[in-house]
Amino acid sequence: xxxxxxxxxxxxxxxxxxxxxAVPRTISGGERAMYHALYPARHALxxxxxxxxxxxxxxxxxxxxAAFHVVFGKSVPDISLNAxxxxxxxxxxxxxxxxxxxxxxxxxxxxGLKQNSSGKTGVVxxxxxxxxxxxxxxxxxxxxxxxxxxxxxxxxPETVVPELKQSIDAxxxxxxxxxxxxxxxxxLSGDPHRWGDYAIGETIDHVDGVTIEEAEHMLATRLxxxxxxxxxxxxxxxxxxxxxxxxHVISMARALSFNGLANAQMIVGLNAGAHANPCFSGDTxxxxxxxxxxxxxxxxxxxATRLRLVAYKGDAAFxxxxxxxxxxxxxxxxxxxxxxxxx
Amino acid sequence: xxxxxxxxxxxxxxxxxxxxxAVPRTISGGERAMYHALYPARHALxxxxxxxxxxxxxxxxxxxxAAFHVVFGKSVPDISLNAxxxxxxxxxxxxxxxxxxxxxxxxxxxxGLKQNSSGKTGVVxxxxxxxxxxxxxxxxxxxxxxxxxxxxxxxxPETVVPELKQSIDAxxxxxxxxxxxxxxxxxLSGDPHRWGDYAIGETIDHVDGVTIEEAEHMLATRLxxxxxxxxxxxxxxxxxxxxxxxxHVISMARALSFNGLANAQMIVGLNAGAHANPCFSGDTxxxxxxxxxxxxxxxxxxxATRLRLVAYKGDAAFxxxxxxxxxxxxxxxxxxxxxxxxx
Amino acid sequence: xxxxxxxxxxxxxxxxxxxxxAVPRTISGGERAMYHALYPARHALxxxxxxxxxxxxxxxxxxxxAAFHVVFGKSVPDISLNAxxxxxxxxxxxxxxxxxxxxxxxxxxxxGLKQNSSGKTGVVxxxxxxxxxxxxxxxxxxxxxxxxxxxxxxxxPETVVPELKQSIDAxxxxxxxxxxxxxxxxxLSGDPHRWGDYAIGETIDHVDGVTIEEAEHMLATRLxxxxxxxxxxxxxxxxxxxxxxxxHVISMARALSFNGLANAQMIVGLNAGAHANPCFSGDTxxxxxxxxxxxxxxxxxxxATRLRLVAYKGDAAFxxxxxxxxxxxxxxxxxxxxxxxxx
Lengths: 343, 343, 343
What we know:
3 copies of one chain form a homotrimer.
Chain A: E1 18-20, E2 25-26, H1 29-38, H2 49-54, H3 64-79, E3 83-94, E4 103-115, E5 121-131, E6 137-148, H4 186-189, E7 203-205, E8 210-211, H5 214-223, H6 246-256, H7 258-261, E9 266-274, E10 284-296, E11 302-313, E12 331-342
Antiparallel strand pairs in A: 1-4, 2-4, 3-6, 3-9, 4-5, 5-6, 7-10, 8-10, 9-12, 10-11, 11-12
């Protein structure tokens, strides 16, 4: 009777499966402090209870990406333990801020399956939701991963590829209850530039860089109870390197984007994301952004901005893809997301 | 007037001495979060207030081993600053869970003394207790260490070797007040296997591994205010290596054992423990377990399981000792402890 | 329209300027736990709510130096992003302890300007104050930094060099409201030596050492939202080294000084400080102290002690300056500060 979890293989998924992920997690001030120690995170709403209250929230929530990591991390043992690659994200929405004392759990539904032509692997699409102790969904997102088959001779399932939005409609973005930027203080937020100061097509080099350490990415990845071996075990890959959790790069890039986007306070939508190339200890991560779109929201003091956030290593900003459409080797992350900003 | 603490030497201990250790410590959500960042700890009772409440506790306590580390750490300046080796543990009992807001201090009584035949060192046995702000004992354990003599010509004390139990009787294990696993949810805990699914003699390879980093073991050891030089000062040993606190290996192995023993929720007894070989940065730590014994408890929803937990480096599980009875070089830890599980 | 903060240059400062620094920060138990994980900090007042209450405070505050780091860190983007060197500190006072739940922000006033003879740089003197959510000043200090000019041809400002006290008068030190050491327990604090046991001129070798890791100094520096590139980006300096935030050395040395000064509980004044030589990962930091002065306070149970705290690397304590008055190369920090101790 094998007691350990070997993870699911491609043939273990069925369309419509609902998987309740294990190990709920209560968030405290400790997780908030760790997030601020691990990333140069400075968005004021997530740093100061007073700033959050002036913006209509009861207190400063944990960073939106910390909430994402907790929800994502719980899904790893059931979804991506045998994943060859994390292929993409879509339709991510933050629905409720997460506060100290909240307890999160995750549930995923299998919404797509497609065996690869090799017959050795397949793509699994899941919609993962994070729920709090009141069974309210605090966030949800779709991701798809390439998973190994246990038995290459297992029959292929019927192919189902879900129709996913290229981008969330601005009208479908959800503002946290009470959020209002009428009294927004740009001296305290660290940047005079408001929603109206950014133009579609504008690009921003976020200037700063952080050199990645093994201890830091492991602390981060464990904090979210993400258990994928490849992040922790230097004997797992032939080259002796520990692959860095893609979410570590997302959080690092988002934090670096403060310098130029300090008022891109809350992340409310995740349209797409690609981990373009692997990141390893010793890489120096930098970031640049492009303004993709802008929209009004239901609140006249708040505007929505759709951003591309690119993390790269080395020092060549603004390069993205080669002529053949492939990412240049120094690009680590290409993320497409919606934020809300003060008007 | 020397102001620094040079630590006690063998001739400084007398049978019956009661040593009140310094620097009480208040536990907050920060210590809980750090513990989860330092170890892949996922036992649900220590991760979720909701899960803990469903199990009859008022909230999620800090990990039992975190409580152990706090209590142990306080004893280091008085007991093991001049220790040559930490020889063993016995009769460890967890009596009350430790919650955020609790303040712990430690007291040790000298219960045994035996000078070694070399005349240069001796073995000191102490029973160390951790007390909370209400002066309730939250845990206690016996440990014995080999300590240098200050003066080799100092007379040997009368030899007193305490009679210590090979293992705590299951009947003497203490369940936290209110603990009940009648409504235990194995989907949330992450493992379908209950107490009845484990057989005496069964062994489990916990599969996962973590490569140790200097920054991580130092963060951990400092968090428990353990001050032994050898963990922090690369100039202390001739080989320039920092010796890793044995408790770091204990917590790492216990956390890794989640994969196969996710329902071994609470540690209630420590029967024995040996730090078989030293651990250094760069070692990849893995773990395997053996079911040594099983017993009922006073609560029909809760069973007790006695486990051997072995931490080792490299990739050869299930090896333990050579023919001559010595541990094989890759074994780091051999721990014998009692847990409680849902029936 | 450049969106990123390039920092201020020498010609951007005017005497009397008041700069409100961005990103207020709410402190929780997480910051306290991180501080204890990053430094071997054991002063009992900052470790135990019970000990703090026995000393007349409502709870255990965060370490005085953690409060300093938060206040300092906020000033970095406006004061020292283009600093060539952090030249000195003076007139630092801790006015109110900082507790969990407090939100801090920082304000600096420009009090001195002096262009260097090269015409390429100048010295900026600021008085920086940290304020809590009630707009009470919790601490303040003067620091001066050498800052690059953007344009070497910009005219020099009128030279104003503020008159700064060599040392704060003991009579001007502020004791936290309610602080009383009448019931001080030296068994719990970890050291029998009280204020009366220290003599002016006495020196103490603090014995212990900690080898510095990249991950640890970056975690610390980010925790205080200090954004100076040189601490994080290994590509920033030609030698590929990350310069360690001087405050990391201050906190490390202060924590190491526990062994010999465990009853030097609260820091109440900062008279002077020099970062004598740079510190890098791999250095082993040690510390020694010298008693510079002693004074009574308004409370008969509390004495003030003025200390020199020297951090150095390697193993040669008590060396400080060469015959020509320059610091010997192994000295990292020379700090002059006031503490309060139990009489």
